[in-house]
Amino acid sequence: MIKLACPSWEVTVYEQNADGRTFGFGVGLTPSTLQSLDEADPDSAADIRRAGHAGHGMEMRVGAGVRLPGGGNIAIGRAVLLTILRTHAVRAGVRMVTAHVDLPDLEADLIVAADGVRSGVREKLAPEFRAQVELDDALYLWAATDFALDHATFAPAHTPHGVFVVHAYPYGPDRSTFLVETDEATWRRAALDVADAHTEEGSSDERSLEYLADAFSDVLLGHRLLGNRTRWQRFATVRCGRWYHNNVALLGDAAHTAHYSIGSGTKLALEDAIALARALVGEASIAAALERYEALRRPWVERFQTIAARSHVWWKNFPRRLDLTPARLMTSYMTRAGNVTVDRFAEWHPDVVADAAAAFGGEEISAETAADPVHLANAVLGSSIPGIGRRVVDCEDVTALAVPLAESVTDPWGPEGVHVVARARGLLEAGARMLWLTGDGDRPAALSRCDLAERLRLDTGAIVGVDLPASLAADAVGALLGARADLVRFR
User: Fold this and answer.
1) Is residue 70 classed as helix, strand or coil in its secondary structure?
2) Contact status, residue 40 vs residue 65, Cβ threshold 8 Å
3) What's the pLDDT score for residue 387?
4) What is the DSSP annotation of 1-55?
5) CA atoms of 462 and 427, how far apart (whole Å)
6) What is residue 286's predicted lDDT score, i.e. its pLDDT?
7) Is the distance from CB of 425 to CB of 460 less than 8 angstroms?
8) In terms of Cα–Cα distance, which of 426, 443, 106 is closest to 246?
């Protein structure tokens, strides 16, 4: 992108891995990313589209299951993607060098560090970049299998040691990515921590691959799991207060990460590259270009990180929702991060939302009703349980029963949430009949309140209500159908 934008520049890429070698398997590209590529570099985009595996749908394998048809996304093997990008870079006049280099080795007007989540450049300049890296408590493992699944597949595996969850998707005619996550207690009970400790650096954890192939035999249909230096990891959330220092700029995972459950790492890196190249053309100096690059990208990336964080905690707690009906579970999944409302989901798949509403309220509604936001809101918010309406306005009886928990909790599933759960248990032991989460604030605060309500429901078994602004009717419907809250009250 830089060479195309600035043909007179000398551009060198230092790649430490030999041609065709890379970690991981397939990556997903969304329609918005593909559109950005089409606009910025149509030749590369066309080759990526031709080589990609297009249009797989999605299946949630819980109970009777839910299957959604394919969309406009594609998946492509990492090695294939790198080959395409490398070919086009060389064609544009970029010099490619296979070597590992450090900052002192380089003399250049601009150094772009795209060296990943464990960026050596970021670590060397951590104070200047104000870098923060937070490791998750759950564990995950990237693998693949040697056949193409029909759909992107979400499925739990119940083992004697606990629950493992897979997110798998096809990325070629004979390949699928197979990503498995579990909690640390399950991992240790299965002795997979021992297997990990005995896996040599640079090798795959074959014991874990065998264990998981057996656990997910119904998904794999007798096929094996493939490793590529595959071993258990903890997701690292990377945030930097600055993305550049002097003439050194960070790009992609080196600068920021967003959880894989939202399918974002490659997307963010490619869009960073497009933005950086454009900034270099539009500004008179490197310093001004880097300032513009960060100013344009940071708000978008930080918003995406917020969405990904919500998706992350939903994915970690997926096994706790397995008692939901398939339609309610799928609705919970689709609305998990706040970027897709239940109304938008109902536009795409009204039959699923209709089934979720019927399971919630006990009365059948049509797909046509579900597809209309006003009719859906009336059907869900107007339904009732004995004595209490699910939409509660100025109801003194409910106020008397409610125990307000007005909290400003930024991480409902973290330590702050633990504190609130402890308080709630004390209130319930003292005779409270239900819990009510009050509060004001913007939409992110309201969504966090709904997430906290779900945690209280799961951890205490209590009936939990939540206050929401009247403007968030769609979020109220999503919270009820997705079992985040039992009751809502508009303020």
Assistant:
1) coil
2) no
3) 35
4) -HHHH-TTS--EEEESSPTT--SSSEEEE-HHHHHHHHHH-HHHHHHHHHHSEE-
5) 11
6) 96
7) yes
8) 106
Q: What is the CA radius of gyration of the chain?
A: 24
Pair 448, 420: CB distance under 8 Å: no
E strand or H helix at 59 = strand 57-60
The β-bridge partners of 76 are: 27
Instruction: Tell which residue, 254, 181, 265, 252, has the closest CA to residue 215.
Output: 181
Residue 405: predicted pLDDT: 82
Residue 239 CB coordination number (10 Å) = 16
d(CA 182, CA 357): 30
Give the E-state strand segments of 340-417 in sequence order.
384-385, 388-389
Pairing of strands 248-250, 111-113: parallel
CB atoms within 10 A of CB 293: 23
What tokens does 77 get?
A: 């093997």
Contact 157, 215 (CB under 8 A): yes
Rounded to whole angstroms, the Cα distance separating 236 from 175 reads 26
Q: What is the pLDDT of residue 409?
A: 82
The two three-digit tokens of residue 232, written as one number: 């258990």
pTM here?
0.91
For 338, the token pair is 């706040």
- If one counts every other C-beta atom within 10 angstroms of the C-beta of residue 68, the result is 17
Q: Tokens at residue 372, please?
A: 């209309």
CA distance 98 to 13: 8
- pLDDT of 385 above 50: no
What contacts 96, CB < 8 A, 6 or more positions away?
Answer: 12, 13, 15, 86, 89, 90
DSSP-derived secondary structure for 233-284: B--EEEEES-SEETTEEE-GGGT----GGG--HHHHHHHHHHHHHHHHHHSS
DSSP 467: E
Give the C-alpha separation, 370 to 2, whole Å: 48
CA atoms within 13 A on the CB side of 159: 23
Phi and psi, residue 243, nearest 5°: -105, 0
User: Do 301 and 256 meet the contact criterion of CB atoms below 8 Å apart?
Assistant: yes
Q: What percent of the chain has pLDDT over 70?
A: 96
Longest CA pairwise span in the chain (Å) = 76
Query: What sign has the CA pseudo-torsion 24, 30, 34, 40?
Result: negative
Chain segment 41-97, per-residue pLDDT in tens: 999 999 999 999 987 889 999 999 999 987 788 999 999 999 999 999 999 999 999
State mean pLDDT over 148-167.
96
Q: How far apart are the first and last CA of the chain?
A: 50
Strand-pair partners of 178: 143, 168
Indicate the helix (H) or strand (E) that contains 203: none
pLDDT at residue 396, as a whole number: 54
